[in-house]
Amino acid sequence: KAGVTQTPRYLIKTRGQQVTLSCSPISGHRSVSWYQQTPGQGLQFLFEYFSETQRNKGNFPGRFSGRQFSNSRSEMNVSTLELGDSALYLCASSLARAQETQYFGPGTRLLVL
Amino acid sequence: QKEVEQNSGPLSVPEGAIASLNCTYSDRVSQSFFWYRQYSGKSPELIMSIYSNGDKEDGRFTAQLNKASQYVSLLIRDSQPSDSATYLCAVGKDMRFGAGTRLTVKP
């Protein structure tokens, strides 16, 4: 069974731009969660989607948004990029709940210049 | 005060020893607790989840939860060099992570 895939793997943007990251969960998994990982703040939960609905949300500004499609694929969007948004963005999928066994994708490394 | 705290380490133990990793949390109503392992340059992978007070064992790993004292720990018995990684504690339905403890197991 294929694992969680994320595209693109690397991205360079400039301040003020917006970016969209994509995540394809493991087949059959309906819960997709997004995380931001930085050396300073560690791993931080952004949000969780299940059946196209946002179920939980972390403490991030509204510039960070996401959505989930009927095939469980998910996208995350960051608008008006700031230097501090440079991070590794990880997506994780699980069968039904983020609290179950989550499988992480390889991540998208975003650099904001 | 951070919501989930871990000793950042590094924690160094000799091969075959018991490695003890600790995590404290501030939200008393948390009901779910997780330990993840993250190798350098890789994504986290779940080692254990625990929901009830007491011990939960899985192979060489034992998770211990004490809700009254608000801590959860992970013991790794017979530590191997391949256990060298950063161990992340996560708490609650919104998955609050600690900063992680870097473990090195020396041959």
Describe the fold and architecture.
The complex is a heterodimer of chains A (113) and B (107). Chain A is mostly beta strands. Chain A has no helices and eleven strands. In chain A, strands 2, 4, 5, 6, 9, 10 and 11 form a seven-stranded mixed β-sheet that branches. In chain A, strands 1-3-8-7 form a four-stranded antiparallel β-sheet, with no helix packed on it. With 107 residues, chain B is mainly beta. Helix content of chain B is 0%, strand content 54%. Chain B has no helices and eleven strands. In chain B, strands 2, 4, 5, 9, 10 and 11 form a six-stranded mixed β-sheet that branches. In chain B, strands 1-3-8-7-6 form a five-stranded antiparallel β-sheet, with no helix packed on it. Chain B starts with a strand and ends with a strand. The mean pLDDT of chain B is 93. The chains are: A mainly beta (113), B mainly beta (107). The A-B interface holds A 33, 35, 42-45, 56-58, 90, 98-107 and B 32, 34, 43-46, 49, 88, 90, 93-100.
What keywords describe this structure?
heterodimer; A: 113 residues; mainly beta; 7-stranded mixed sheet; 4-stranded antiparallel sheet; 11 strands; 0% helix; 53% strand; B: 107 residues; 6-stranded mixed sheet; 5-stranded antiparallel sheet; globular
